[in-house]
Amino acid sequence: MYTHTYVLENGIRVVVVNPNDQLMTTTAGIFIRQGGRNENDVNNGISHFIEHLLANTSSAITSEKEHVKRILANGGILNASTTKELTYYFGTCLKEYSNDLVHALYELVCQFNITEEDIERERKIILDEYRNKLKTTNQIYEHFWSTIYGNMSYGNWIIGTEENIHHFDSDHITNYYHETYVADNMTVVLITNEKAEEVINMTVDIFSDVKNGMPTPLEVVLAHEVGLTNIQTNSDQLVVCFGDKGPSFSDHHSVSFELLTAVWGSIPSSRLFQVLREEHNLVYQVQTFSNSYVQTGNYGVIANVHKNNFQNFIDILYYEFSLLTQESFIPEEISRAVSVLKTFLLTKLNSPDFLLKLIGSRAVFGHYFFINEMIRELSRVTPEELQHIAKQYIKPDNISIISIGNITEDDIMNALYKKEEVS
Question: Where are the domains of the chain?
Answer without folding.
Answer: 2-207, 228-422
